[in-house]
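Review box. Two proteins, two foldings.
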Amino acid sequence: MTDSADLPIPEAIPCTTAFEIPGHVIEKHLGLTWGVLVRSVGFAKGFTGGFKALRAGEVPQYTDVVDQARRDALQRLIGHAQSMGANAVIGVRFDSSDVGGGDAGLSEILAYGSAVVIRPA
């Protein structure tokens, strides 16, 4: 079984947590870009994950859901940045929160950063 965290994220444009991209000059800052989604664990994973949560350690059912949600949020961030005319995103960060109350089992995953236009130095 391949762990999805080991798979590369197919990026259409460079994305980095840094505020510069080595070998490139930032020509223009286009503003804030983001990708957001609300994800449910689902009954099957929630049920089996609930049993695994009774003992200490990682709960892979939840890890897989959160990992895929972050990947999807990053893809949406890239799409939003490209729609703004960006060819890169700097300062990428992730945030998450519960939505609909803790009992709803819904999580918001947000990827955000600064959309920029870069050129080789």
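Next protein.
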Amino acid sequence: MSYTVIVPKPVQKQLDRLPDDVRDRIIEKIVALAENPRPQGVIKLKGYDREYRIRIGDYRVRYEIDDEESVVVLLHCQHRRDVYRN
């Protein structure tokens, strides 16, 4: 079962600001979420029903999974010191 990965405009801007080598690694992981939205090493965030995060070096990708619609929506893609701030 394949999921649709949605990258909202604010997350795309976050990706565009990253260094090229980091961005390439993160995009690889994001594309892989379409096939497996809960890969090895994924962490479900406490206090949220459908929110998860994956770690790519010092960066984190926070995303939400809607299993009924087969959709993964990216919420944040930032350095670990910034990603959990609201």
